[in-house]
Amino acid sequence: MSKLLEIKDLYANAGEKEILKGLNLTINKGEVHVIMGPNGAGKSTLANVILNNAEYQKISGEIILDGENINNLTTDKIAKKGVFMSFQSPEEIPGISTVNFLKEAKKNIDGKPIKVFAFKDDVKKYMEELNMNPKLADRNLNVGFSGGEKKKNEILQLLVLNPKIAILDETDSGLDVDAVKTVSKGIDMYKNDENAVLVITHNMRILENLKVDFVHVLVDGKIVTTGGEEIIKDIEENGFSKYKK
Amino acid sequence: MSKTKVDDINRNIYDFKNEDNYDIKLQKGLTKEVVLEISKLKNDPDWMRDIRLKALEMYNKLELPTWGPDLSGLDMSDISTYVKPKSKLNSSWEDVPEEIRDTFDKLGIPEAEKTSLAGVGAQYDSEVVYHSMKEDLLKQGVIYTDMESAVRDYPEIVKEHFMKCVPISDHKFVALHAAVWSGGSFVYVPKGVKVDIPLQSYFRLNSPESGQFEHTLIIVEEGASLHFIEGCSAPKYNKVNLHAGCVELYVKDDAYLRYSTIENWSKNMMNLNTKKAIVGKNAQMDWVTGSFGSKVSMLYPMSFLNGENAKTEYTGITFSGGGQNLDTGFKVIHNAPNTTSLINSKSISKDGGSCTYRSLVRIMDNAKNSKCSVSCESLMLDNISRSDTIPVNDIRTDEVTFSHEATIGKISDKEIFYLMSRGLSEEDAKAMIVRGFAYPISKELPVEYAVEMNNLINLELEGSIG
Amino acid sequence: MNIKVNETPVRTSRNFLINNIKIDNLELPKNVSKFENVDISSDKSIVSENTNISNLVYGNGDLLEENNLKYCNSKIQLETAKEDVKIVYNFDDKNISLINQIEIKADKDSTVYVIYNTKTEKNVFHNGIIKSVAKNGAKLNVVVVNFLNEQSYNFDSFEAIVEEDSKINFFVIDLGGKTSVVNYYSNLIGEKAINNVRGIYLGKDEEKKDLNIISHLNGKKSVVDIDIQGCLDDKSKKNFKGTIDFKNGCSGAKGSENEFCLLLSENAKSIALPMLLCTEDDVEGNHSTACGKVENDSLFYIMSRGIEYKEAIKLIVKSNFNKILDEIKDEELRNQIIEKIDSRLK
Prior knowledge:
The complex is a heterotrimer of chains A (245), B (466) and C (346).
Chain A: E1 3-14, E2 17-28, E3 32-36, H1 43-50, E4 57-65, E5 68-69, H2 75-81, E6 83-86, E7 93-97, H3 98-110, H4 116-129, E8 140-141, H5 147-161, E9 165-169, H6 177-190, E10 196-201, E11 214-219, E12 222-227, H7 230-238
Parallel strand pairs in A: 3-10, 3-11, 6-9, 9-10
Antiparallel strand pairs in A: 1-2, 1-4, 4-5, 7-8, 11-12
Helix pairs in contact in A: 3-5, 5-6
Chain B: H1 5-14, H2 19-24, H3 32-41, H4 46-61, H5 79-83, H6 98-107, H7 111-117, H8 126-140, E1 143-146, H9 147-153, H10 155-161, H11 172-180, E2 185-189, E3 199-200, E4 215-220, E5 225-230, E6 242-243, E7 246-251, E8 256-265, E9 270-271, E10 274-279, E11 284-293, E12 296-299, E13 302-305, E14 311-320, E15 325-334, E16 340-349, E17 354-363, E18 370-380, E19 386-395, E20 400-410, H12 413-420, H13 426-442, H14 447-461
Parallel strand pairs in B: 2-4, 3-5, 4-7, 5-8, 6-9, 7-10, 8-11, 9-12, 10-13, 11-14, 12-15, 13-15, 14-16, 15-17, 16-18, 17-19, 18-20
Antiparallel strand pairs in B: 1-2
Helix pairs in contact in B: 3-4, 4-11, 12-13, 13-14
Chain C: E1 3-5, E2 21-23, E3 38-41, E4 46-48, H1 62-71, E5 74-80, E6 84-91, E7 97-106, E8 110-118, E9 125-134, E10 139-147, E11 153-162, E12 167-174, E13 179-188, E14 194-203, E15 208-217, E16 223-232, E17 237-246, E18 253-263, E19 269-278, E20 283-292, H2 296-303, H3 309-325, H4 331-344
Helix pairs in contact in C: 2-3
């Protein structure tokens, strides 16, 4: 079965506010999907709801990962099942270094002990490929990192944890040109025929270096259009207005 | 394990003849007789005996504090039992509560240290290490010995400094301490000597008593420097439940002293420790404190910035769990120009525990151009606990840069979500965040202590979440 | 007699000198005749003399509270309509003791100004209690201005109860009195209740200011925001105690407190105790206090634009106060306050 993630008729709220109003989406293995939409449409909400963030409540609908309904699993269990979200604003956690945190997370997700030296070498290699300052490995997780460094750190985590599906939430916001290129490179390194990528964005830059299979437009809590890369161009030139009706 | 000669000599001091008679006499309250008995047992010189007697008078005059946590668990009329030397010499490992023995195991404390921490035996393993360290120190002229030996062997130095940094009139429990003190460390670092390795208090060979009236006196002479570590993170168990210790620190001109301690008394204890430092010109005094354990704590380390350009930094964390009322904080008096103080305090409350942060910053009118910055953060882990912040800022000059901030709240949901999205369970995520919260303190401790402290935090958090 | 007033809600060590304020040689007036010079301007609000004030939760202490309840010589009960109400008390040679009560009930958006003026050089005595309640979503502004002369004793006890969805903005402008003791207590009992407390004080010569603000957050998502700006000159002294108490059950509540004191002389003394008490985890609490003299950089910049030292100081003091003063809508009153500040800054 090549269906990796299937979302059926999802309704979700943030407190009393309805945000997702019947969203449907299917992602197969090996695919790269993009969701675009105006601000407030519910893009970040979707990512958070998939990972069962307690700030959002599912009202009805199903989220099925690799054939299994993950509606009621806790966030960590969902992560262990192979869902990774790259955060728009990654949290700063003092008291643990970047590399030790990665080790901890990897151990939890793989469920088996880590060979420390081999692991640290791998991390070092990924950091080089991502043009990351090697000193960041020993610094406290995200503490004092610039916006760009934080985002690259998210991609580093993606590469190390190697999930089944990567959800990239506004990964390109606030990055300079080089940083965007690096992040794209990271996504390329991750991508293969068995996994999938879902990019959530409202601006185009990250997509310039990515081969995209499907583009969805999310307006007012629902996906209103699905197409190919031509949609990206259309939105670039004409904005979202025609999709809002 | 063989005991050394030094240890034998110590034991002789405490072997006394009329053991049976002594145990039969039940004395209510703290009397002159009991104090004199203690003084005799320790072979006090006259001047020390006089201090004890004056302190007893003061103790009888002073009242209990009218503020702070409830001290009613302390039976003041029974104080003589607390101070009876030999009151715990009959304890055995079996008498130590199971929960304490378990903690030692979980913290990975080796066998020999366990018994010493449980007040059951002296420290054996550490002898060898102690002796080699002792030789290096001796070469440099550093004196590191127990307090009783110091009174006997260095009377001039001790007399000049004993109970002068902390006057016996300070409060009732200081007076009590001065009357019945027993055990503790004496460290003297001569001019210009920089002691490279941190001195740790459990390397000193002490008496079998577990020191609930310990007196620590540290003198760092001009231009010298020292890092002293008191205690460790394993719970110190005592059958008797009062700890009224006293720490006096003298940091002379151009000197540096860092005093790190993790106070983790067992949860039946009332910890009423008094610690003060006098800081001279251009000198610096750093406090690093972790307060865990004990049922009730009243702990307010204090720095007197007495010399121009004197500096003090306080980094502390207090963790209060169910049944605990930990009232801690810091006091600083700026008594000279250009002095600086930096206070960074954190507290965690859970399971119905109560944490109170109490502080005093007093900038005198002669402390022109002083700087003080205070930051307190409190973390509540549930809604049955308490966290109070009561800082008093007394500014008596206009030439000052002073700021104070405090925050209180719970662990951020966003941080928990982030960590869980990386596969950590909710419990592990919270533990990681709490350790991160304690990080500014753990990073100031030597690695073994930091590891122990983190393990202690994990232990404290176990079972409290979910 | 010698009395101790304005106790802190949580005791500290006696030698911190902040538990209360000692006042020596104070004669509490008794059997005073009715205070005659009270001007109340209101159109539609209901005004009467039937106040129903009994035990205060905090207040300035038993002695002063008893004195007020027994010898009160001016009572005003106000049920506000949607308007501004102004109450002005004018002390003169014949009316030198004011022991007053004001009770405000607001269920409509309204503002109540209370102004104490002195038109006499004699020692005057003021012991006042103001109780206010806002309910049914009402937004109530209470602005209390103390223009007493420099020989007076001023004792204020304020209580503010905020019910669900309602709001009380309470301003204390303390520009008078040899000794001025203010106790403020607010209880945010309703969900989403909001209380903003704003204070300005200016001490000089040997004046004493004692300000004790206590706020209890009980209602879910209730919010208290306290901002106190002060200035001390000559040998004046101030004690500030600001307590935010998050009670169990007030989940989602927020409390913040900011206190800043400008010291204009080397003999001015400031003691501050910003307290945060908490038995509820789902809250956000913070406070900050700062204290110091006028920044050299600011002073130099202003003087380099041709403004002489004394004027420059006045400008800086007022700029600290402006944020609070801007929230007072009555322009005439605002100008009177600014004039008073100018005159007190010599």
